[in-house]
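Lecture 7 notes: from sequence to structure.
We start with the chain below.
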Amino acid sequence: MECTASTQQNSLQNLNNSKANPALTSDQLLADKQADTAHSSATKQPYISHQPDSEGIIHYSDAENAMWAALLARQAEQTPNRACSEYLQGLEKLNLSPTRIPQLRDIDEVLQATTGWQTAAVPALISFGKFFKLLADKRFPVATFIRRPEDMDYIEEPDIFHEIVGHCPLLTHPAFATFNQTYGELGLNATKQERLYLARLYWFTIEFGLMGASKDTRKIYGGGILSSPSETVYALSDEPECRAFDLIDVLRTPYRIDQIQPIYYAIDDLDTLFDIVNSDIMGAVKKAMSLGLFAPTYTKK
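Predicted structure tokens for the same chain:
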């Protein structure tokens, strides 16, 4: 799994302060807090987002642009036969440069013309409240840094490649855009505990969702998969378990942000996101809370 929360250390610290990104919180992380925090502090420098100049332009280095080019070229080999058609159509609309990291205003021009969305430049870690407010206002948060070479195959932070290549193509589609906006609106009014259950809904749809009732026709729409060359191949292989989407089950399924996913949930098609939006999501959250979580299927550290 690639490109998920912020650094694991910051995710852990801020989860306890209700400031971790609610869509990207791992259930097992709290149990591993001390060991992982110490390890992260000793071995990894945090990523820092770039700030735009007075004209709103972010200047990336040659090395950063080279990383973008390498990631985009490698992912272009994996997605054509694995990503859903709506994603591929959205990617074509964005018309991304193969050699340079795009400016957010260029992405905004496409999103505004299709679904009325736009991006919002943010640090790697934002508060619960800000995350939900941005989505509710049809603004998708994008951290303006790109991974370093040592993290090319695996990164927990949501870098600009993850956000732009993983998510923005489908933000041109009404069902995907509406789901994100509704999710933001629900999150703004949810309790801390309810937000943890909502996080699992976002995780198994927007981040790691599949679509298609049968293995032969199954495609990827989750941005966490589509920004990860390794998981793009793995997700449609025989190795992971793929379950039919059931809202209550999704809300009860634990996950980790720092391991490749052992379980995925598949919706029928992208318009199923409209059906989820029109269902009683918070009622389902309350039922899932009363039932409790399923036993984890991932490997504990």
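Points to note: Confidence is low (pLDDT under 50) at residues 1-23, 29-41. Residues 62-78 form the longest helix (17 residues).
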